[in-house]
Amino acid sequence: MKKLGLIILAGLLCFASHGLVGAQPRQVQVMALSGTTGLAMARLMDQAQGGTGSFKYSILKDPQLLMGKLIAGEAEIAALPINQAAILYNKGVAITVPAIIGWGVLYIVGADPSVRHWTDLKGKTINLVAKGAVPDLLFRYLSRKNGINPDRDLKITYTASPVEAAQLVAAGKVSLAALPEPWVTEVLERVPQLQVLLDFQTEWSRLEQTEATYPQTCVVVSTKLLSDYPDLVRGFLNQLELSIDWLNKHPGPGGILAEKYVQISATAVRKGLKRCNLRYQPIHKVKREVAHFLSRLGGVAPAAIGGKLPDDGFYSQP
């Protein structure tokens, strides 16, 4: 009986130890892109300094690299454009979207006083970033809705990155460019003659007859992480919402963190934060807006969303 009791006790201790391990996972890998996508996490990164918390943060420059990390399972939580999340999901990558954090950061910048409305672009030359990416597709959609055929009525040039586009417009080598924040503010600071001429977000709201602008950036979570540690995921999302709220109220200190962690100048955040349109929304509140935006992008280029609208498994509220 004594031996039996020792065996049972050993089993209970093993079970308890296993439960403890399950409750305390190794550090969760959280990744985001440099720029405004990662800006939402700047305060969380600062709070995680020392590396002893539940989350390890990484900032990447290349969206394709981030997508590769998600495919390989090396990123368990990530912030990235919603259409890229749809592409991954439609490829069978085990991710889900619990929240939207960014609502559009695109603007047309230049020194051409004749451009006051979208229709004024007709006959102009404009530089866009990354052919086939969201800025290109959304520009084409909004142009067509304004009666402009982008391929016939405009001359479109492309650059590979916002940094390159910002350098060209600042140097006067292109007269009009569609830029995202924070490069909009960076350019305006360098060349005072330049100004924001058109706002993609305002035009989207006008044409789509909605108060909300388009949901550009989301948080994705691996379905395994969500299944194994739902409380941990909920805690992270709660802290992310608080981080974004703090940032919007404190652009000065937020800018210092942005410069330290996500490669955005403190000045760009301090002066341009309102144009970044960071706002946390749980997915169940904005599922319709997400599906609508993806359908519009897919109408321009089906491959931009992975060939089809994601099914309901794409949306998950922990």
Question: What's a quick, concise take on this entry?
Answer:
The protein has 15 helices and eleven strands.
Question: How is this fold's topology laid out?
Answer:
Layout: H1 2-23, E1 28-33, H2 36-39, H3 42-47, E2 55-60, H4 63-71, E3 77-81, H5 82-90, E4 95-102, E5 106-110, E6 125-129, H6 134-145, H7 150-153, E7 155-159, H8 162-170, E8 176-180, H9 183-190, E9 195-199, H10 200-208, E10 217-222, H11 223-228, H12 230-249, H13 251-261, H14 266-272, E11 278-282, H15 283-300
Parallel strand pairs: 1-2, 1-3, 6-7
Antiparallel strand pairs: 3-10, 4-10, 4-11, 5-8, 5-9
Helix pairs in contact: 6-10, 8-9, 9-14, 13-14
Description:
The protein is of the alpha/beta class and 318 residues long. The chain contains 15 helices and 11 strands. The protein has a 6-stranded mixed beta sheet, with helices on both faces. Helix 8 (162-170) runs parallel beside helix 9, helix 9 crosses helix 14 (266-272) and helix 13 packs antiparallel against helix 14 (266-272). The protein is globular and about 55 Å long.
Could you tell me the radius of gyration in angstroms?
Answer: 22 Å
The shape is: globular
User: Into which percent range does the helicity of residues fall?
Assistant: 40-55%
Order of helices and strands: HEHHEHEHEEEHHEHEHEHEHHHHEH
Strand content: 15-25%
Strand tally? 11
Q: How far is it from the N-terminal to the C-terminal residue, by CA?
A: 46 Å
Q: Given the helix and strand composition, which structural class is it? A: alpha/beta
Number of helices: 15
Biggest sheet overview: 6 strands, mixed
Average pLDDT rating: 91
Low-confidence stretches: 1-22
Q: What is the topology, as strand order, of the major beta sheet?
A: 2-1-3-10-4-11
